[in-house]
Known about the structure:
Elements: H1 6-12, H2 20-26, H3 40-45, E1 51-55, H4 60-71, E2 75-80, E3 101-104, H5 110-116, E4 122-125, H6 132-137, H7 139-160, E5 165-171, H8 194-213, E6 216-222, E7 224-226, H9 239-248, E8 252-256, E9 262-263, E10 265-267, H10 268-280, E11 288-290, E12 297-298, H11 299-310, E13 314-318, H12 322-327, H13 337-342, H14 351-365
Parallel strand pairs: 1-2, 1-4, 2-3, 4-5, 5-6, 6-11, 7-10, 8-13
Antiparallel strand pairs: 9-12
Helix pairs in contact: 4-10, 5-7, 7-8, 9-11, 11-14
Amino acid sequence: MDNRNNNTNFISSNSNYSKLQYLNKIHLKSKNSVFKKINIDDIYKSYKNKNVLVTGGAGFIGSNLVIKLCEIGANVLVVDSLIEDYGGNLFNLEPVKDKIKLNIADVRTYPTMLYLVKNQDYIFNLAGQVSHIDSMIDPWTDLEINCRSQLTILEACKKNNKDVKIVYAGTRQQYGKPNYLPVDEDHIVHPTDVNGINKMAGEWYHILYNNVYGIRACSLRLVNTYGPRQLLKHNRQGFIGWFIRLILEDKRIQLFGGGSQLRDFNYVDDVVDAFLVAGADESANGKFYNLGGKEPISLKNLVELMIEITGKGSFEEINFPEDRKKIDIGDFYSDYSKIKNELGWEPKVSIKEGLQKTFKYYEKYMSYYF
Ligand SMILES: NC(=O)c1ccc[n+]([C@@H]2O[C@H](COP(=O)([O-])OP(=O)(O)OC[C@H]3O[C@@H](n4cnc5c(N)ncnc54)[C@H](O)[C@@H]3O)[C@@H](O)[C@H]2O)c1
């Protein structure tokens, strides 16, 4: 009997946060449960003096990765277009502004990428149009950035740097609305929006170039990521940044459909580690891996936790707006046992600790993000 969905009933009818710990213990598959042991400091050391290009490096996840790479001694080149209303923010790079090379350029431009990929040991490929809503309003731009430019980057590597290792930022959105939970990599991909389709194609170009041309590449399918340096200016880049902003402003959050949807979240430091682990491990080449959170949690519980941490904000439950409902995926949480077994990555930061760090950052630097 397939009882994978049973976990959902357990959690959605339950608002007791401590019981989520129980779900955490059972939401990974037990099969293949030989977990690879790694020493993250050895992985960090492998980047010392290496040339690393981070596309989208002024954005949320990219900038946190850039800061870590500088800390561990890599020579970092950031490429970011800083398109208005996207997540690029020069303040994100403030702590390392004297250590990096920054090229304000667009990954859509082949001659530029042809030049920039030269002599890089690694490319962490995070540049992207990340708004699902925008991808439905303007599908062509999403196609250009999330799909066509991936070919541009890979073709540039094929011509000028076949020895590079690339780690691509895929997304759980590629799976669409889950057929079962937790979602593992065997789950069919059937995206519910243009962004998910283009990200899926972008990922598969990487796998293809690995398999056909030997350009070492792999993909991480990220779940909702949160933490310092995330865009908070508008609500089109996903709900978590927007919830954080509303809490900071002591405003009321509207929970579509009552907020019973389950999601898993990664604190950005864990995601940064996943990129570094996947980049350093040759056995990742040609593969894709789910990331995933320690604790699946309902959106209502998430907001309650934010309110508890900050003492600010409130929420109300409302019906789903039509444009959001059509592309909503309902409950989602991922099974990350493949990356845990094969590469030794697992999330370390609990949602409570991650949110505490996040609010601390924004309380200090709020003016750079509003
Ligand atoms: N944040 C998440 O929860 C999440 C979840 C799944 C996947 N991802 C993926 O991770 C990657 C990074 O996401 P993020 O949350 O840091 O978003 P972000 O918007 O903060 O960062 C993306 C960066 O890419 C840059 N960019 C966009 N188009 C570009 C172009 N044409 N040329 C050069 N730079 C360009 C933007 O300026 C921005 O700095 C994206 O590829 C996204 O699809 C993120």
